[in-house]
Automatic annotation (TrEMBL):
Pathway where this protein functions: Pyrimidine metabolism; UMP biosynthesis via de novo pathway
Protein name: Dihydroorotate dehydrogenase (quinone)
InterPro entries, alphabetized: Aldolase_TIM, DHO_dehydrogenase, Dihydroorotate_DH_1_2, Dihydroorotate_DH_2, Dihydroorotate_DH_cat
Its EC number(s): 1.3.5.2
Function summary: Catalyzes the conversion of dihydroorotate to orotate with quinone as electron acceptor.
Cofactor annotation: FMN
Organism per entry: Solirubrobacter pauli
SUPFAM superfamilies referenced in this protein's UniProt entry, alphabetically: FMN-linked oxidoreductases
């Protein structure tokens, strides 16, 4: 058991989940300002081995494991998170304008399944504020995840959606190693289904092409097991050479296919999407289908229930080029990164 699991987690889990998260981020931001703290963290948590080195959309990374979007939406803790051993970090989701997100409470733990239920609705400080924070050197490659501004008064409707993405893209692309487009936040009820009309993905990419894209683009898709839809999306991406890969978001709500052991009615008071092991099998099935369609032409970033080297290895075997985690960090703390990488090396051996 790590110090986090034995000592820190019990204290954090006494607090409301969002409060605990904000406290963790504030401590990370503060710790990250000290080069001594960063060095100590780096020594404790980093595992370097040339066999782990790989690329993400052509960008060299020290290992295939990254921090998923949502943990540090506003790039507050990049320096500290960069010392935790991840091969890359994904910041965001960030939108053109700041947004308060959904009403609280909007973050819940389900310890029985090591899961999180999230209904944030992409609150963030907006593209300009995040641009300021990403001004300095980046400790590891950083992707910035962009989403349409969540404004209940302006639900996704027409071309203004493309303008919203184009605005945040123009502000942030020069501060990122790659940009991910969150095409479907499961918790922005008014916007969630906009890109179900796949021609709109094509229109968005055509608009971004006018912004002179200089970094690789990853499309973070609404999850679907419909191979026909995935094939169509890949065909659209084929028409836009700056698209380098795909990722898969969480499904919205509590669909029947989630691997939950907790009684479902106990989740009634927790609105939102489920992250962690209950989505692992579903995401893995989509990943396998997507790999069958893309072959080796695209980067595939896979997240969903990665809490062990075995889970990360399974995703890599299914065709992921890079793996991300979020919920694992909440349940197992920063030592999980090194543990996963050590287990991956054992598997490789
Ligand atoms: C609390 C929370 C907030 C998240 N926020 C975002 C977000 O803002 N943008 C996004 O693209 N994905 C977001 N995600 C999805 C994660 O990036 C990731 O795809 C998903 O949680 C699966 O990984 P995990 O099982 O390791 O948590 C969020 C997930 C959680 C749990």
């Amino acid at each position: 058991m790590s110090v986090y699991e034995s000592t820190v987690r019990p204290l954090l889990f006494r607090l409301d989940a969002e409060r605990a998260h904000n406290l963790t981020l504030a401590a990370s931001e503060l710790g990250g300002r000290s080069s001594v703290v960063r060095r100590v963290a780096q020594r404790a948590f980093t595992l370097r081995d040339p066999r782990l080195e790989t690329t993400l959309a052509g960008i060299p990374v020290a290992n295939p494991l990254g921090l998923a979007a949502g943990f540090d939406k506003n790039a507050r803790a990049v320096r500290m998170l960069g010392a935790l051993g991840f091969g890359h970090l994904e910041i965001g989701s960030v939108s053109a304008d700041a947004s308060d997100g959904n009403p609280k409470p909007r973050l819940f733990r389900v310890p029985q399944d090591e899961a999180i239920v999230v209904a944030y609705g992409v609150p963030n400080e907006g593209a300009e504020a995040v641009r300021e924070r990403l001004a300095g050197p980046r400790p590891v490659p950083v992707g910035v995840n962009l989403v349409k501004t969540n404004d209940p008064a302006k639900p996704a409707a027409g071309p203004e959606v493309y303008e919203d993405y184009a605005a945040s893209f123009s502000v942030l692309q020069d501060r990122a190693d790659y940009v991910a487009l969150n095409l479907s936040c499961p918790n922005s009820a008014a916007d969630r289904d906009f890109f179900d009309d796949l021609t709109r993905i094509d229109a968005l990419l055509a608009r971004l092409a006018e912004c002179d894209p200089r970094v690789p683009l990853i499309l973070k898709l609404k999850p679907t097991r419909d191979a026909g839809v995935l094939r169509e999306i890949v065909a659209i991406a084929d028409g836009h050479p700056f698209v380098s890969g795909f990722a898969i978001n969480l499904p919205s709500g509590k669909p029947d296919f989630l691997d939950l052991t907790v009684a479902r009615d106990s989740l009634d008071r927790m609105p939102g999407a489920v992250g962690g092991p209950p989505v692992e099998a579903y995401v893995n099935a989509i990943l396998g289908t997507l790999k069958g369609i893309t072959g080796d032409r695209y980067t595939l970033i896979a997240a969903g229930g990665v809490m062990s080297g075995e889970a990360a290895y399974t995703k890599l075997q299914l065709g992921a080029t890079n793996v991300q985690l979020y919920t694992g960090l909440v349940y197992h703390g920063p030592a999980l990164v090194k543990r996963i990488l050590a287990e991956l090396l054992e598997r490789m051996d």
